[in-house]
């Protein structure tokens, strides 16, 4: 068994501060979206991702990957978005086990309504607290962390996907395909 590399006092201080900042930022954004738009951040992220996709349509597996959600969590979110009329699901013609999620005009309208408040909350809580140099450094730090976690996260996702694919093979195909006109996407800055 490898020897534990304990955190130094400074590393422990930074870890706790970073963890608190992430938790508080997530809580701030979640509260703003719930109070002003009646949706959790997870739903907002799904709407943003779909708005940026050609035809506002994406395979559920790809949507799960882009939203960093488990397939079961995403399926629950899309079911709720579908009940609100903001997203439609349809079966994949090529792979009956697969499914598509498509942003509806009502979903685009909900996103366009929610985006200004969300962007304002992110700007106020994060970017207004930092200098331009700190923003640049935060970007570098975030990229390094994401890069360091990419391989372990990809391995875990592959294992989850294999288990879900095996389970999906035993399920009936989903509902018939829906079609619709594409709509303008919300700017990437609205994320």
From TrEMBL:
Q: What is this protein called?
A: MarR family transcriptional regulator
- What InterPro entries does the record tag this protein with? HTH_MarR-typ, MarR/SlyA-like, WH-like_DNA-bd_sf, WH_DNA-bd_sf
Annotated GO molecular function terms are: DNA-binding transcription factor activity
User: Which top-level group of life is the source organism from?
Assistant: Bacteria
- Region of interest (Disordered), residue spans: 172-191
Q: Where is the HTH marR-type domain?
A: 11-147
- Which Gene Ontology BP terms does the record give? response to stress
